[in-house]
Write a structure and sequence with these properties.
With 170 residues, the protein is α+β, with helices and mostly antiparallel strands. Helix content is 32%, strand content 31%. It folds into two domains: 18-75, no CATH class; 80-169, Alpha-Beta Plaits, CATH 3.30.70. Helix 4 (95-112) crosses helix 5.
Length: 170
């Protein structure tokens, strides 16, 4: 059954899907403006962004909503949105280069989405494990290492929980 949306002449088919099922993102949004008291991200215009000057101004204002952003909440709960595992003898030989690539990708990604962060990096023998606050960041880290170093890359999505396991080996 097709219906017209609020925009004249735009036809929609079926039911609208929920934009996000992430439990860390409030369904109703937040009151504007808000600031994360842990990492100082600013919430304005329904988006989280990094603006240190604005964050300091908002933190000084007693009327500003002060809370914890979704990324900091995930980190508090130790509940990653993605886990990336890099393994193999090749990893041991190119560990520094791969870690630099991962850190650069995270920094670049944070410019676009400051909620996507590396939560933890751990290493045992020739296995490097990285947990991230967002599934898309985990996917991107795996894809970028694969593009630069080849190997085998696999994804296992859990769509109902916004979680992905990414494994790369070479």
């Amino acid at each position: 059954m097709a219906r017209l949306s609020h925009k004249e002449g735009v036809e929609e088919k079926g039911q609208r899907t929920v934009r996000s099922t992430d439990v860390y993102l409030p369904k109703a949004g937040l009151k504007e403006a808000a600031v994360c008291k842990k990492c100082h991200l600013v919430y304005q215009h329904k988006r989280w962004h990094l603006d240190e000057k604005e964050a300091q101004r908002l933190l000084a204002d007693a009327k500003t909503n002060k809370g914890v952003c979704p990324a900091c909440r995930r980190m508090e709960d130790d509940n990653p949105g993605g886990v990336v595992t890099f393994s193999g003898d090749y990893l041991r030989e190119h560990e520094v280069e791969i870690l630099d690539l991962i850190k650069n990708e995270e920094a670049e990604s944070r410019g676009k989405n400051p909620l996507g962060r590396i939560m933890e990096i751990s290493q045992e023998e020739n296995v490097l494990t990285i947990s991230t606050t967002e599934d898309k960041l985990a996917q991107k880290l795996g894809r970028e290492v694969y593009k630069a170093h080849k190997g085998e890359l696999h994804y296992r999505w859990s769509h109902d929980q916004n979680f992905v396991r990414v494994s790369w080996t070479r």
